[in-house]
Amino acid sequence: MRQLRVIEAVAMAHKLVRVHLGVQPGEQVLLVADPVTDMAMAWALAGAVQEAGGEFTLAVMPARHNDRATELTAILDAGLERTDVIIGLTGASGAPTYSRKVAELLGQKRLRALSMVMRSMDNWTRGAALADYEELDRLGHRLADVWAAGSQVTVTSAMGTQFTAGVTKEPVMGHPVIVECGIAREPGREAAFSDGEISQRPLAGTAEGTLVIDGPVAKIGAGDDPIYIEVRRGKVVSVKGGQRARRLQQILDTVPGADHIAEIGLGLNPMALRNNDFEEEKKAAGNVHVALGSDLFYGGTHACGVHLDMVIRDATFLIDGKPLAQDGRVVA
Question: Is the pLDDT assigned to residue 232 strictly greater than 70?
């Protein structure tokens, strides 16, 4: 069974390198792993890069945890200056995606990136991985334009979410709303895999209301105990619930700046599974995720050791009162 999964990974690696990233002969591709990474994925990608004529460097960094989960090593930061493509494969943290240096180089259009952080072989070969990514990318750009033209985001859910925020107008990677739909062929583009979302940081200080988190949460996981979060002026002011709420409160108490509302995202992928994996579920069509902590990747200035995605299932997502998703269905 394991051998079959490796064969599947090799086939997907070639598709990712040639189609999703468009790696060209002579390009420098940096693969960033950590001790938690499934190295079969890393070596599959390395082989695909070499076959496409690129040159890979495979680096293994420490397994970052809550205090430094958005930081690469100093050596990797320096190496990014000579990198055309970075592929993040870390299993313990999202450092290759959320590092300050990666955000800077993406903004300068000197780099393109593919994020596979905190993902397993299943994320490569099941569910959201099987979507039509060309169509997903077109949908993402259409809806991103609608979002960017509006002034207010409203998120509600049957579980009790009632949340609003202003729309940020400053471009990030060329647009006020980031499109992550699996395609990153030009400098300044970023994608994930599996993928399928649009997102942005809310206008500073405008996030208000109640979030009821019934889906999985990064670093905390899934459960049948919803987390009830009150937000005022862009900050978390109270957390209530069961065991998951207590774990979230512990992070807020120990990681400076983790109470900051960093991101709002809308999932678009119709193939994504509801499988309690936050990386899979946050991409699912009609799910919304709100993140706490660092917003550097989203063009902000709020640095933090964590970036915590929290999934709200089957949400309604409105721009100036007009739905992009209604009760878990993308309708725009």
Answer: yes
